[in-house]
Amino acid sequence: MADTTATIQMMEVLNGGNVESSMDVIDLGAFIGDLSIEEDFGSDEVSLEGLQHELEECKDDDVVANILSKGIKLRDYTKTVEKNLREVELDSIQDYITESDNLVSLHDQIRDCDVILSQMETLLSGFQAEIGSISSDIKVLQEKSMDMGLKLKNRKVAESKLAKFVEDIIVPPRMVDVIVDGEINDEYMRTLEILSKKLKFVATDAVVNTSMALKDVQPELERLRQKAVSKVFEFIVQKLYALRKPKTNIQILQQSVLLKYKYVITFLKEHSKEVYGEVRAAYMDTMNKVLSAHFRAYIQSLEKLQLDIATSSDLIGIEARGGAGIFSTRREPLKNRSSVFALGDRINILKEIDEPALIPHIAEASSQKYPYEVLFRSLHKLLMDTASSEYLFCDDFFGEESLFNEIFAGPFGVIDEHFNAILSNSFDAIGLMLMIRLTHQHQLIMSRRRIPCLDSYLDKVNISLWPRFKMVFDLHLSSLRSANVKTLWEDDVHPHYVMRRYAEFTASLIHLNVEYGDGQLEINLERLRMAVDDLIMKLSTQFHKSKLQSVFLINNYDMTISVLKEAGPEGGKIQIHFEDVLKSQTTVFVEELLLEHFSDLIKFVKTKASEDPSSSSEKAITVSDVEPLVKDFASRWKDAIELMHKDVITSFSNFLCGMEILRTSLTQLLLYYTRLSECVKKVQGGSALNKDLVSIQLIIHEIRKFSRTF
Question: Whole-angstrom distance between the N-terminal and C-terminal Cα of the chain?
Fold first, then answer.
């Protein structure tokens, strides 16, 4: 920039200040002069040292290679280069001269900018000084603000603590009026809670104990505490006395009255444990006596509704005939009192487990009587509902579950006394098993309610029932084992009443064991089955004819199977056993029945029909051997079948069973006669008897007549 300015100034001087007029006529060559390189070949200072090295370095240079290839002299080439440089320099100067106006304008603008920037620098320096001063002021204000905020926060904390202290320790006049003269209602309960908080505050806060305010307030708080304790004690005692009034609904009084004021108990427990103990003892004594009296009255009413089912003489193997002595009481024959051993409608009690308890005076007015398991369910339904309500109330009102056991010690004693008396005189095995199942259901109900207060009691009941059931069951078992066959035997092939008792008794217990699978009960039933098997076989031997023995056994087995099937689709091992012995006795009876009418035919078939008639032995079958049999059968086979039919109809109690046995007998007869016919055909000369042989198809047709009857 300085060179350009100097050039311009020089041009102004040369042209008298008119640059533009002289730019077109100036001769730069004349002004600069003729540039030349002096030749000094004769100088002694020229040295060729290093020339070879430089030539080696430049041998690959394109320009040097081009010069050398054209044979141009270095001096000439140097002049040419020098000339070119001079022309370039002159062109550059000419360009500067051409742009001189723009350069001058640019120079002026730069100078103006420098002035403006200098002014702005001065202004900003002033601003910076003022901002520094303001920043110092702001910092001072910030420190003052933080100090004031901290003081305000501390004062608020102090005010809050002081206000809370004053609120907790002060005794408002309204609170005094309510505690001393107010009625015990919702407002009194709220005031009592406030008093409790103040009492806890002065008793537990260490700061309060050192304050002067406590000396003024503490006596007043103590007097209020004593007054409140005295007042609520009288109130609760009056409510407890209301529980003793006859016909009082205890649960409604507990839920609608006592629970409404349960904070009274909390207050007494926290601020007067002695008075709380008195209230607790008073409630326990009241409820113990009230509930004991209620259960005693209810049990006495239930006892009037009891229907006696069985006595010690109502056993399976006991003779049904009652005594006829002077002092004997007339009673219905046991064999007609099937309810002793049959479950019947008594099973419905398990379906009525959630039904309300019996109302004794209503049942008594209708002259209804119930088996003891109905009364047992009703009593325990009342016990479960009462115990559940009382347990929840004790937990909610007193916060003590243990109080329940003290209250129910009396009711449990009343129930145990009654139950033990009933149990010691109970010989109803079905009723005992029903009570065992009811107890199990009651345990499930209490478990679903999640109330454990009756767990130990129900376990005790269950433990009492099982030994009694086992004892009564063993009495039945002993009655079968020690039964007097001669006194039990009746000249009747129909099912014996002892067997019917056994079947109904076993079916009842199997039915009651379906959902429980009690293995011990199954073992006892198997023992009972073995005993009755032995007894029924002994009774059958009292018949002199083997056919009657079979009929007697078949009738009893068939009846037993029918009763067992009524108990459920699967009679188990016991039913399978009786089905097997029934098949065995049916086979025996069929043989006896056929021998009675076709003895010669059967003996022949069994002894000789298997021999070869064409053999030459002395025992070979001849026409004379089979002719009487063929003619005898042809002459009376229809009459014999009719007699068999009548015999079966009169012998068997179960018509279907009898017809099945008849069909089996006729089928067996057909097999015997078929073998006889085949034997006749093989006998030499047996063709002469063809006219007397009965057609097999004719016999089958006759058998089908009887088959259609069932």
Answer: 143
Residue 586 CA to chain centroid, in angstroms? 52
Structure tokens at 42: 């004769």
CB neighbour class for 183 (10 Å; exposed up to 12, middle 13-18, buried from 19): exposed
263-293 burial: b if 16+ Cβ within 10 Å, else e: ebbbbbbebbeebbeebbeebbebbbebbbe
- All residue ranges of the chain with pLDDT < 50 are 1-2, 4-8, 10-44, 322-336, 616, 709-710
Residue 642's identity, in one-letter code, is: E
pLDDT given for residue 602 in this prediction: 86
pLDDT score for 16: 43
Task: State residue 387's pLDDT score.
Answer: 95
Instruction: Taking the CA atoms of 105, 106, 112 and 115 in sequence, report the sign of the dihedral they define.
Output: negative
What's residue 428's pLDDT?
A: 92
State phi, psi for 370 to the nearest 5 degrees.
-135, 145
pLDDT for the residue numbered 477: 95
- HSE-up of residue 464 (Cα within 13 Å, Cβ side): 17
Q: Helices 372-393 & 409-424, crossing angle to 10 degrees?
A: 170
Nearest alpha carbon to residue 476 among 544, 420, 429: 429
How much is the pLDDT for 21?
Answer: 40
Lookup: tokens for 463 = 């433990």
Q: What distance in Å separates the CA atoms of residue 279 and residue 276, rounded to the nearest whole number? A: 5
pLDDT at position 627 = 83
Tokens 């064999």, located at residue: 335
Q: Are 315 and 481 in contact (CB under 8 A)?
A: no
SS (H, E, C) 517-548: CCHHHHHHHHHHHHHHHHHHHHHHCCCCCHHH
Bridge partners (DSSP) of residue 306 are 370
